[in-house]
Amino acid sequence: MWKIREKDQSFDYSKAYDDKSTSFSLQIFHGGKFSKSPNMKYKDGEITFIDDVSLYDITLRMLDEMVKRIGYPCDMEFFYQFKEPYVCLDLGLKSLKGDDDFDGLCKKVREGYKVIEIYVEKKKKNDEHSSDDIVDKNNPMHEINEVVDMGNFHGCVRNGRESESESESEDLEVDHDNFDSQSDEETTVLKRAGNIVRSKRKRKTISVDASVNPFYIGQLIESSSMRWSNHIHLYQEERFIY
């Protein structure tokens, strides 16, 4: 059974734990506060030693009982941190928030360490904020209650979507009446589709400067002489091939 060591009482760890490989002592730091990193220190606190702690019994509930036996009120809640041996406070602190977090502590005891440092921080009951939360007093955060008018925003979004939908519908609209498969057996589906595309492009380019809509593949040539020249060119190419 663990017990609180009296102040200024001498204690021989080798003799006390010579045949107790699973027993150890806790060096509990309490009542103080941590300085800022780097070179973190625990200031204005007290140290209490608790001996004959069993490796198999250590839990959060046991730590709560120990701290209350030291003299803290029963209506307080506590945060506990275990420090790895021979590691500075900046890097060695490990939070003990659940019983599973004691694995690292128990590992050190099995490795032969007989004194384990525990740092205690207290909070009032029902306080939801952990003392691990760091608040920079030199740069406080202010809550902003500014109201943003979203009316214009929604209007712009709607207008943008409507204009986009109109442009898409204009580009994708197809007259399905021209796809009557029974109307002309000699006309293929591909040719009919090409006629539809060329007719729609023709309507778009009426009364528009040629510099705005330059030549593109599949464009309908308005001049009959140009069409005739094109036919002659194709005829000559076919003769050359054959």
Automatic annotation (TrEMBL):
Query: Which stretches of sequence are listed as region Disordered?
Result: 159-186
> According to the UniProt entry, which residue ranges have a biased composition of type Acidic residues?
165-174
Domain PB1-like positions: 22-121
Spell out the protein name for this chain. Answer: PB1-like domain-containing protein
Q: Which organism is it from?
A: Tagetes erecta (African marigold)
